[in-house]
Design goal:
By secondary structure, this protein is α/β, with parallel strands linked by helices. The chain folds into two domains: 188 residues, Rossmann fold (3-Layer(aba) Sandwich), CATH 3.40.50.450; 140 residues, 3-Layer(aba) Sandwich (Rossmann fold), CATH 3.40.50.460. It contains 14 helices and 13 strands. The strands form three sheets. The chain has a seven-stranded mixed sheet, with helices on both faces. β7, α10 and β8 form a beta-alpha-beta unit. Bound molecules: 6-O-phosphono-beta-D-fructofuranose. The site of 6-O-phosphono-beta-D-fructofuranose (F6P) has 11 residues, from loops.
Length: 370
Amino acid sequence: MKMKIAVLTGGGDCPGLNGAIKWVTKTALDPRLVAKRSVSFDVLGVTEGWKGLVEVDPNDPKSRERYIKHLDEEVVRTWDRYGGTNLGTSRTNPFNPKNDRSGKLIDNIKKLDIDVLVAIGGEDTLGVAYSLHKLGIRTVGIPKTIDNDLTGTEYSLGFDTAVNVIMEEIDRLRTTAGSHSRIFVVETMGRRAGWLALRGGECSGAYVILIPEHPFDMKRVCELLRERRGREINYSILVVSEGAKPQGRQEFLKDGKVDDFGHPTLGGIAAYVADEIEKKTGFEARHIVLSHLQRGGAPSAHDRLMARWFGIAAIDMIINEEYGRMVSLAKGEITSVPLKEIVNKLKLVDVKKYYDTLLSKLAGVYRIAG
Ligand code: F6P
């Protein structure tokens, strides 16, 4: 039996996606494995995520050439070394109630004779995969999001590289912060979950970390800075998630834009915090927004390894006919979970478990001792 696998990447890009595509392809086509299986595969790469599958015109060779790529071992051989996604990505939601294009999507999947879809993405992309699964399309998911907020898995591609970027940039900031005795407020990504700020801040020794899971008290942040000044050192690094908010306020919106899945663009919290620090303490403060730098560059060793394991596992799942599921890491082992269990939920930071609440319990601001 021959099956056609189509693989796509959706949502924000990150290092590790290319590795996952490579290992899906290599595992599907490895001649030693092919000889042992009752099924063989063709692998197609869909460009630009769900957009590619919605917009492709299967009857038009030019359109097929743009959106559907033939993948083989030679094509993907070096992909695991590089960041981004060689297939391209989009935030297209074919099930957006305001512009429902799911009919076209399903029609195209049939016309292209796709037997199974491997969707690599976060909550939004895998939510679409789950909707397709419910409609009878065979799907397998691979977790990816630098925010690391997918439930059902301990790891999602891109997180480790992003944490390393945060750490490296903070290392750089320290020298200039120290020379000028300045406070630096570093804004990380992380809309609703504070994992990036927390882990990035912890491993780089940030003095204060502010995350979306717990609204903070600006007065207390300033007190902590005053307490420290002159005692240990004259500069401090604060790390703040883009989705963090002061008590009694909503998260800071960058502009009025909302994506196809209804998420607004966040931004501005670091600038606010730095400004308040200057006003309230008189200490010189600057802010920096790490933004898409966190999604750039080559994958870390951990992301390369996870991409490899996840890609191999996705093909195992197809062979075992475990559809409607996402590859996952649980207690350090590769396993899988039903997509049903991971949609419409996020893995947030367990404040009680993961914060240093030494000062914060009383103060209402969460601080990781630096
Ligand atoms: O993929 C999630 C994320 O990393 C969020 O933390 C961030 O808000 C968003 O991507 C920004 O993505 P873009 O600007 O590429 O749409």
